[in-house]
């Protein structure tokens, strides 16, 4: 039986993650700009709704396939590769989503100056 590495899936996962990342970036920028213009009563941390979560899931799905394909190329069985990738993706995705909420709350309290990293140096 001949083994064919999943190079197509590696590229497809990478492209899915990138395109979802562009959609995520655009949606996040629009939400923050709208909030900054209107200073609405709707808090920034509550803007993490379906419009932002769907592209985030796309990023996570693309990364899952990319990681699993990369692990699979190195000879791991497909099921093990997807299992490892799933755990890594869920943990990393949950931490990133939580950190996004923290960052949005920080912006809401102190504006964009609250996250100015240059002020620390």
Provide the descriptors you would attach to this structure in a database record.
3 helices; single chain; 121 residues; mainly alpha
Short synopsis of the structure:
The protein is mainly alpha-helical and 121 residues long. The chain contains three helices and no strands.
Q: Helices, strands, pairings?
A:
Blueprint: H1 7-38, H2 50-73, H3 78-110
Helix pairs in contact: 1-2, 2-3
Task: Walk me through the structure.
The protein is mainly alpha-helical and about 120 residues long. The chain has one domain. It is about 75% helix and about 0% strand. It contains 3 helices and no strands. The protein is elongated, with a radius of gyration of 18 Å.
